[in-house]
Amino acid sequence: MQRLLVVLVAGTILLPATAIAQDADGPLAWIDRDRLRTAYFYADPPAEERVRQLVDVGMNAMILKATPDKALPFLHEAKKHEGMHTFLALNFSVNAEQEGLRQAVLANGRVERYACPLEERFWQDYLLKGMLERAELGNDPTLQVDGLWIDFELYSTVTGQRYYTNACYCDYCMGEFAREKGIELPELANEQRRPWLVEHGYAEEYTQFLQDRVQELAADVREKVHAVNPNLLLGFYPTPHDWQLVAVARAFSTERLPIILWATDTYGGGGPDRVPDDWREHYAELGINARYCAGMLLRSYSAKNLAAYIYHTSAECDGYWLFTTY
User: Fold this and answer.
1) How far apart are CA 30 and CA 16, in angstroms?
2) How many domains does the chain have?
3) Out of 58, 258, 283, 298, which could bridge 289 as a Cys pair, Cβ 3.0 to 4.6 Å?
């Protein structure tokens, strides 16, 4: 963090002017006015010093990757600083094998360690539970909680496949698809299932079926979270690039509250040149009401040019987030 501060300590990096928010008191007003200027870190103490450093260099938001208990001192401290906001981070991935949940099956037939994307127990007992625990903190007037930042990378993988791009072909998913279509499936080994769907012209319909089901599960989670904290901003990493992430992005966004896409197009360098020119139209066509925050992996940007990259990248979207500052 100290090295980052040396880069930014010349003062607040003045970002390009933004449009005035239509709802000056709404949960998005500060983003519309000031853009997201965000630091990702692990909530290492002392909280007072860490938050003060962020304020001093002109940042207005923190992504806190920590348990709720460990995050509490930072939430208290952020509340003391007008204009400082927080997003509590949590992982989507769990070890389904260890937790006794139904496991995903990939297109090549391999069984993964992470959960089947249609495993309702996972969505309710793990993801929703973690989101509600953090959402409820936002109702404490002494704490600053603006939103949740969900990491959708599947870290519990045993195959190296960190997303659901080529899943799921488990007994449950195949059986539910067959029931919905009114077709009878032959006995198929795991590795025969995807080829059978392709051969019989069902491949695209099957992916759409999975996407629709995930969207339903995610929408139910979002509704329950917003019942507890109606103004909580939901967002995830990375940029939506497969059927599952698109489904969740649709479900987590509403007409009133867009999803914040903590994007990774700019992660490996390139800054403004890597922000898609048509990101607004692209996500609107997908049925996603989105705000786009460009991520910068600090080792991919030179300290000398970081401030310029921040300025010009933010001009193309709703702000930036830096990984990692602690």
Assistant:
1) 14
2) 1
3) 258
CA distances for 109 relative to 113, 116, 190, 197, 265, angstroms: 13, 13, 4, 13, 30
> What six digits make up the tokens of 306?
């970081």
Distances from the Cα of 25 to the Cα of 16, 17, 22, 31, 121, angstroms: 21, 19, 9, 11, 37
Residues in a beta bridge with 85: 61
Phi, psi of 35 (to 5 degrees): 65, 160
Q: Is the pLDDT of residue 216 over 80?
A: yes
Distances (CA, A) of 28 to 19, 148, 251: 12, 14, 18
- The span from the CA of 243 to the CA of 166, in Å, is 10
Range of the domain at 144: 2-323
Q: Is the pLDDT of residue 11 over 50?
A: no
Rounded Cα–Cα distance for residues 223 and 213 (Å):
16
- Which class for 276: exposed (0-12), middle (13-18), buried (19 or more C-beta within 10 A)? middle
| CA angle, 244 then 239 then 69, to 5° | 85
Q: At 148, which CATH number?
A: 3.20.20.80
Give the C-alpha separation, 124 to 89, whole Å: 18
How far apart CA 161 and CA 107 sit, in angstroms, is: 11
CA distance 56 to 53: 5
User: What are the pLDDT digits (tens) for 83-136?
Assistant: 999 999 999 999 999 999 999 999 999 999 999 999 999 999 999 999 999 999
Q: What is the DSSP letter of 191?
A: H
